[in-house]
Amino acid sequence: MRKLTKKKLGYGLPLMALAFILSGCGDQYTAKHEPQQKQAAAVEQTAMKTYEPPSMEKVPEGPLGDSIKLGYKIMNETNTALPHNVGNNLACSSCHGGAGTDTTSPLTGVTAVYPAYNPRAGKVLTIEDRINGCFKRSMNGKPLEANSDEMRAMVAYLNYISTDVPIGMKERPWIIKNSMQNAPKPNVANGEKLYQQSCSACHGADGSGTGPTSGPALWGSKSFNIGAGMGRISTAAGYIQRNMPLGEMGGVKQGTLNDQQAADLAGFILSQQRPDFAEKTNDWPKGDAPADVPYELKSSKK
């Protein structure tokens, strides 16, 4: 018995040594190739200047495909598909045209950049958190249950239009942000004139809109609340200047408004009544709020 035990120990020592050597080789391989892998990922991200998402015609058959299609439907028909979660007459496509695939405010590749830190929340958000933020603010409604079929469908759709975008990508080069930094002081009276001239045909003279995707409500009870991103003049003016009007209206063509005109329109629209947001004072808890936040914050009183 003793001899047998000694034999086992004898075999064990070389095996342990071999394992140690192989372990060392593995560490050397990792150390040697990690920079190459990181460099390759960086090159891949840098090279991706444009991105074309797969079409809905290529959605796979089966349960996953059904979920993607439901997500697509929710994006375009949010207010009617989820009436218990939406408190206005808007859809995701009201801002993110083409269910997030056109150039107005693209969502292509969005799931590759989440989780991500969000200054307004003061913490890292998942894609589900971000979706529910829109439901509470832009939709003036209630959040979806995290494990609901509807939430899973929205994430499945957003994953689908992010196909082949590298996970962990910090910036999406094909995205142009709708933001006008240092927007000029708006002339609300001029903004009203411009609105009636070039916007009212689609959005209504009273701002109540003609439909979630044909002409979304811009103010009033059926529009986004004060806590929405579009409630800031830098965002609204930037969005208007880049995207509005979608066709020539009142002698104005898309992309021809100057900074002052876009700011005037945004100022007029945001001067109108809209729903409140009860949690707004908790935004930007670390005190790094942009200057154009249109409400008081707890962090600013510290």
Q: How would you describe this protein?
A:
- With 302 residues, the chain is mostly helical.
- Among the domains are: 101 residues, Cytochrome Bc1 Complex, Chain D, domain 2 (Orthogonal Bundle); 107 residues, Cytochrome Bc1 Complex, Chain D, domain 2 (Orthogonal Bundle), CATH 1.10.760.
- Helix content is 44%, strand content 2%.
- The chain contains eleven helices and two strands.
- It has a two-stranded antiparallel ribbon.
- Strand 1 and strand 2 form a beta hairpin.
- Helix 8 packs across helix 11 and helix 10 packs across helix 11.
- The chain is globular and about 55 Å long.
- The protein starts with a helix and ends in a 32-residue tail after the last helix.
- The N terminus is likely disordered.
List low-confidence stretches: 1-26, 28-32, 36-43
Encode the helix/strand succession as letters.
HHHHHEEHHHHHH
Integer average pLDDT: 88
CATH superfamily of the domain at 188-294: Cytochrome c-like domain
Extended strand count: 2
Structural class by sheet pairing and helices: mainly alpha
The main sheet orders its strands as: 1-2
* Helical amount: 40-55%
CA gyration radius, whole angstroms: 26 Å
The total of helices stands at 11
What is the straight-line distance between the termini? 76 Å
